[in-house]
Amino acid sequence: MTRFLARNLRDWRLQALAGALVLLAMTFVVSTVTLTRNMIDVLAVVDITGSMNVRDYKRPDGTPASRLETAKAALRDLVSRLPCGSRLALGIFTERRPFLLFTPIEVCRDFSPLDGALDALDWRMAWEGDSRISAGLYRSIEMAAGLGTDLIFISDGHEAPPPPSTGGPDFEGKPGVVRGFIVGAGGYGLSQIPKFDDRGRETGFYGETDVQQENRFGPPPADAESRPGYEPRNAPFGATAAHGTEHLSSVREPYLKKLAAETGLSYAHLDGPGGLLAPLMQAATPRPLPGSLDLRPLLGSIALGLLLAVYVVPPLRALRRRGGSPPTSWKKV
Amino acid sequence: MTLLSRLGATLPQILWLLPLALLPLVVCSQRRTLVSAIAAAPADGLSRTIGWALRLAGIVAIGGLILALSGPYRSGETITRTGIGAQISMLIDRSGSMNETFAGKQPSGAEESKAAASRRLLADFVGSRAHDQFAVTAFSTSPMLVVPMTDRHAAVRAAIAAIDRPGLDYTNVARGLGMALPQFGAGAAQVSRVVLLVSDGAAVIDPKIQGPLRAEIAKIHPNLYWLFLRTKGSPSIYDKPAGEDTPQAAPERHLDLFFKSLGVPYRAFEAEGPEQVAEAIRQIESLERDPIPYTEQRPRRDLTPWAYALAMAGLLVLVAGKLLEADLQGGGRAAAARTAPDDATDERRLAA
């Protein structure tokens, strides 16, 4: 009796089955282990100035989509992909300052109001028409520092009115203190900017004379002397009206990259309604938060492997021993 | 039927492995023993039964494991219940003057700005009753939808936490109302609906907008509360101007008159300090004591442990079968068989 029991105990298949049994029993005891996972806290500031209404993106069905719509879709996509426990604060930008809509909201538990708020972003929330992006960016960085978050700043980089020839204001903070990235929204080719009346109805596109083509505050640019009608006192910018393409818009990537370099942020181009997660994970500060890992799938798969081995290995071995030909007769009882 | 339709799996792809559970029908887990003729052994009912039991146990064990790995669950259900609360659409002034104190100065030291006071008191208000639903709209020059109607109070508090940030320019009440009203959606009409306007000033409501606004309010029929944060020295809602009594001369008074003319329950609270704001909020809370249907999400139930338990039951039988495995031949032959590979033969041994 003991002999056949001992023989059975030596059988590797019994050992495998017993191993599987132990693993299964373990699923009831050690189901999860705690470990730290990296969450992200981020402030998203979205430019909602007029140039963000330019329709130079395409929806999957081929109809044109505006930069703002695409940016919204990208943020909603980001929120749905962020690891649970991450939080997002939202601000909008026009004129020269960001306006905080809400402080960070958790992306999983409070997903539906967060998603609804992102969906409600509208250019009609803008309170002034100017778009001084450098000033807005600097103040967004301050705001993110105040909230203790990273920053995503979505803009097309189109300053209105155009910055003076001497360049815009300088960044006075310390570069790199706030981490994050600037997202350049818009196509690389020039497109027309839609125009709206005071009731919010679209009335056409901006023409060349509708917008300021050159900033004539401050000292004149270096080439002013060669302009027609130049006169140092009475016409320091030349005597003719400025011509240009300020009424058309494209993503001003070199400008945004320059701003990013000055402020210690990184830069990414918005290629469509998504794709913000990878650059964010790269640029953001990882914030370790205790999470849990379910061990049961691991234990269960090993147990399944052992169990299947018990059934599959012997016939395979037999097969090999016979030089590949299947067993001639498997009689079942 | 309904029970079945609520079952689901986190990783349904894994269920494609389920045919593997039929493996025990094809191969046996027990040792094979060499016998010259199977017919030499008499047909034995008990052996047959045990053989089938072992096969069944194998099917159950493999199937249960695959099922467990797919993460089975019974999906949660949404139960509608009735509680006490209201749908509250908050319309919050974020004009620059909200960042001043009730005395009309920049806050210094322990002084609290109007925005900071309302932030603190409103944050306490949100979440003091579990079944209130809130929407937050901010307005100054233009209205901004901050958080749509939701019962997630943490999100609402996050929106309220932002209201003492530097504000913008003007107080455009009409457009703000235009955005706060649609937040109620098309839901049940018997729910108590509240528009709570928090502002420190008023503006002339364009006569052109008055008509549509009136129609909208008549349709939604909300209870309207105006929490007027009055700065020291500024006119009260109830002050008649000395000169001409026009909306331009006394916008607060005329906004109050406009609200009164709407034909909906309306109350104005004039607060000249944080204590009065707190008192006003308390009163609003006590006025809004209507039943509200709310949905409770029963969490989904993880069925994985059950699947593991099933697999374990199967495995126990298999292990027992292996443990009690005996060879057809006697003990002496078993020792000899040990030297030969266990599974070299074609004929399967009988389970016994």
From TrEMBL, chain A:
Region listing for Disordered, in residue ranges: 193-240
Keyword Transmembrane helix recorded: yes
Pfam families for the chain: VWA_2
VWFA domain mapped to chain residues: 39-217
InterPro entries: VWF_A, vWFA_dom_sf
Alphabetical keyword list: Membrane, Transmembrane, Transmembrane helix
Signal sequence bounds: none
Regions that span the bilayer: 295-313
Protein name: MxaL protein
Organism: Methylobacterium brachythecii
Automatic annotation (TrEMBL), chain B:
SMART domains: VWA
Signal sequence annotation: none
Domain of life of the source: Bacteria
Keywords: Membrane, Transmembrane, Transmembrane helix
Coiled-coil stretches noted in the UniProt entry, renumbered to this chain: none
CDD domains cross-referenced by the UniProt entry: vWFA (cd00198)
Pfam families found in the cross-reference section: VWA_2
Species of the source: Methylobacterium brachythecii
Domain VWFA: 85-258
Protein name, per record: MxaC protein
Region (Disordered): 332-352
Membrane-spanning intervals of the chain: 52-71
